[in-house]
Amino acid sequence: MHAFDYARATEPSQALDLARRPDAAFIAGGTDLLQLWKAGIARPELMIDISRLALDIVKPRDDGIAIGALARLSDVADHPIVQARWPLIAEALNAGASAQVRNAATIGGNLLQRTRCAYFRSGDMPCNKRAPGSGCPAIGGENRSHAIFGGSPHCVATHASDLAVALAALDASVRVAGPAGSRLVGIGDFYLLPGDTPQRETVLGQGQLICAVDVPATAGRAAYVKVRDRASFEFAVVSVAADLVIDDGIVARARLAAGGVGTRPWRLTEAEAALIGERADAAAFDKAAAQASNGAEPLAHNAFKVELLRRTVRRALQVAGGKA
Amino acid sequence: MTDSSRQRVALALAINGRRHRVTIEPSTTLLDLLRDELGLFGTKKGCDMGACGACTVLVDGRRINACLALAVMQEGRDVQTIEGLAEGEALHPLQQAFVEHDALQCGYCTPGQIMSALGLIGEGRATDAAGIAEQMSGNLCRCGAHPNIVAAIAAYAGA
Ligand SMILES: Cc1cc2nc3c(=O)[nH]c(=O)nc-3n(C[C@H](O)[C@H](O)[C@H](O)COP(=O)(O)OP(=O)(O)OC[C@H]3O[C@@H](n4cnc5c(N)ncnc54)[C@H](O)[C@@H]3O)c2cc1C
Ligand code: FES
Ligand code: FES
Q1: Quick check: A103 and B137 CB within 8 A?
Q2: Region(s) of chain B under CATH 1.10.150.120
């Protein structure tokens, strides 16, 4: 296996300094990077250990919460204020991976995990994401797990994070630091569509560090519904995050995001629009769910996701709407 | 393969209460440190990819997959493995519960199951059988002993 050097960063500025080398990679929990390294897909010459940076703090404020990028998934899911005020985040985290992975993995690493597309992960098959220009065997091959939204002739791989789906529904922002300072990027702008550069997945530049995720306060009722091939410890076939504000029985705000269906976390804007001003009842939920797959472009093996997404949206609305 | 131009790093950590100082290649996983460098073969290597849980150990009391952790990143940590549980010939009560509930066949997954269960109990999540099954989903058993594994954990945890 490819060998690498190691450096432990104690300050964010030191991590950024070390990352000026283009062949360096940050390692946080290591649960995705070490998989990719073992498969020969990630080949850094220097691993910069950022796991001990003091960016692991969860800071609730009146208008939102700042979740440190190095916070462990299990610590965030167990945080009493996250559970009380952002249950969508806790539910999405607990629906992902295993207890062991959640204890090691971090918020920033989760957002940057690479796709589970088997062609990408295989290491020796062609893949435009891993070896630009080599082709996309998924488009004409095995594509049951691939995207029905946002694909391009170069790549149809889905984004695998459950957390990112919840954050998309909550209009979260990612706090990014680079040598030139820090900036806040809305989650809707953070992930890129594959287009003809599927190797670029986010707006994060080489050597830039995610410091935190900012999530605005929500008065909504939440539900995260994840459909998978086994009951636990599996990535989503389809997942839906719902955040509904209901006033006097009428839907005042609806935010819906889906996983397993898009090349990035996918907001379902037409289904959202169909809910606004409607009485929050089964008929309205059915009507909105019917709009969830508008614009879908299924592939040979994943057309079932079109109907599965509608049903998952309906379930998420029923669960969220049923909460007092 | 060793490459002489490559860095080696010093590492100090505690394993089952004993201090260890080693010099390793930075790419050594915690699992390979335990098995290949220290001869602690109780922690098993199944998938080496985080998917089976055979390599589960506790680091500062929390269960993780040793195969997806760099050893050098555990500097100063307190690692517990299956070797640390029994007192001489006297099994740890959770080990005893596995024996009594017939919670293993080939035994390959068992050290990981037991360390994961200890982590789970430490997390305070061993509430009922369904909850235990969900929280143990990171530990696969090819022999299909899951119902008995859940029963052994529930009996030990008093759930
Ligand atoms: C068996 C298994 C099952 C899984 N199932 C699920 C699932 O069901 N749902 C789900 O959502 N996820 C799942 N995952 C993925 C898991 O959640 C990710 O591997 C994990 O969250 C990555 O976090 P990490 O801290 O370990 O990242 P690392 O592996 O350390 O890093 C991942 C990437 O992010 C970069 N990085 C990390 N932190 C930062 C930062 N602060 N700033 C800039 N770059 C950074 C690294 O350089 C690397 O490129 C699973 C993983 C495994 C192994
Ligand atoms: S060997 Fe580590 S999880 Fe399988
Ligand atoms: S007892 Fe054989 S794998 Fe579990």
Answers
A1: no
A2: 93-157
Q: Which of the four pLDDT bands, split at 50, 70 and 90, describes residue B1?
A: very low
Side chain identity at residue A133, one-letter code:
G
* Domain B4-84, classified CATH 3.10.20.30, yes or no: yes
| Closest-lying ligand 3 atom to the alpha carbon of residue B144 | 4
- Residue B124 carries which DSSP code? T
Domains for chain A: give ranges and CATH numbers: 5-51 (3.30.43.10), 58-112+159-216 (3.30.465.10), 221-320 (3.30.390.50)
How far is it, in rounded angstroms, from Cα B119 to Cα B117?
Answer: 5
ipTM: 0.97
Q: Model confidence over A114-166: pLDDT tens digits?
A: 999 999 999 889 999 999 999 999 999 999 999 999 999 999 999 999 999 99
Please, which residues bridge with residue A185 across strands? A174
Residue A62 confidence class, pLDDT cut points 50, 70, 90: confident
pTM: 0.97
Tell me which fold the domain B93-157 belongs to: DNA polymerase; domain 1 (1.10.150)
Q: Which residues does chain B have within 8 Å of residue A98's beta carbon, measured at their own beta carbons?
A: 50, 53, 65, 137-139
pLDDT of res. A252: 97
Exposed/middle/buried for residue A124 (C-beta within 10 Å: 0-12, 13-18, 19+): exposed
Report percent pLDDT > 70 for chain A: 100
Q: What is the pLDDT of residues B74-106, one digit of tens each?
A: 999 999 999 999 999 999 999 999 999 999 999
Give the minimum alpha-carbon distance from B28 to chain A in angstroms, rounded to a whole number. 9
Q: State the nearest Cα–Cα gap between B106 and chain A, in angstroms.
A: 23
Q: What residue spans of chain B are helical by DSSP H?
A: 30-32, 93-100, 110-122, 129-135, 146-157
